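A reminder from the course coordinator: this example appears on the midterm review sheet, so study it carefully.

Given structure:
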């Protein structure tokens, strides 16, 4: 299994901060945002990782992460010449995947859970990871029959459930053929939701539910929530650290 971090996009919801750098390089407490998805993949045992970014900031990622040696990973880089959607960015990973399954994570997605079991038992098809959220209309939303996903709707005005499709996916090598047959959406992009629905029509998509913290950190509100979580988690062992005179309470451990 190989890993792919998709770190493109213009980050318009985080302007003016993203005038200076890619949003995935913004700080989240005491480290750059890119380190969190990198750590999520590494916790599963994945070490061979491709980072896909836009051309404007590709050099910044290489300068920060280098070969990956300092982070215990083997990093490869690919440039997405223009913003054409998540699925278009994933298509750039075909040669890197070399016929193997891939675990894909969006660069602004931060997870507390360990997905080692999901990586070890993945064989074929596709898998998405769902999380109950207060604002599902911001995301792809699954229509569920029990725990089975029968369709995914992209940013619905009236969400059929409170679950969001998070930015963590697993695909077999067939994903690249599916992407090649996609047609651009109304906004001119190749949508990852269309990829997932293609797997659903084949009866080849499974879903798991995220138990611990998750945030996409793509807006100021979600970024602030993520920084607060990271600060509490990073200082969980400290009983003396204070913010505005108040002691920071340790985070509760995620349910297993």
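Designed residues:
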């Amino acid at each position: 299994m190989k890993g792919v971090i998709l770190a493109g996009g213009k980050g318009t919801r985080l302007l003016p901060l993203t005038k200076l750098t890619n949003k995935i390089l913004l700080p989240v407490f005491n480290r750059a945002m890119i380190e969190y998805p990198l750590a999520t993949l590494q916790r599963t045992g994945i070490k061979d990782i491709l980072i896909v970014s836009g051309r404007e900031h590709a050099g910044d990622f290489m300068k920060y992460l280098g070969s990956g040696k300092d982070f215990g990973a083997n990093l490869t880089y690919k440039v997405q010449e223009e913003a054409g959607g998540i699925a278009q960015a994933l298509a750039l990973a075909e040669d890197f995947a070399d016929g193997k399954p891939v675990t894909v994570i969006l660069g602004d997605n931060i997870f507390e859970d360990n997905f080692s079991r999901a990586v070890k038992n993945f064989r074929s098809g596709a898998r998405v990871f769902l999380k109950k959220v207060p604002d599902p209309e911001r995301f792809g939303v699954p229509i569920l029959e029990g725990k089975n996903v029968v369709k995914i709707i992209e940013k619905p005005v009236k969400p059929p459930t409170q679950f969001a499709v998070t930015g963590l996916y697993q695909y077999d090598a067939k994903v690249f053929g599916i992407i090649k047959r996609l047609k651009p959406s109304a906004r001119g992009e190749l949508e990852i939701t269309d990829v997932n629905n293609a797997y659903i029509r084949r009866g080849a998509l499974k879903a798991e539910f995220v138990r611990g913290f998750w945030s996409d950190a793509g807006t100021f509100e979600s970024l602030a929530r993520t920084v607060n979580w990271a600060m509490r988690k990073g200082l969980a062992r400290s009983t003396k650290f204070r913010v505005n005179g108040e002691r920071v309470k340790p985070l509760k451990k995620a349910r297993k």
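The CA atoms of residues 7 and 107 lie 5 Å apart. Confidence is low (pLDDT under 50) at residues 250-256.
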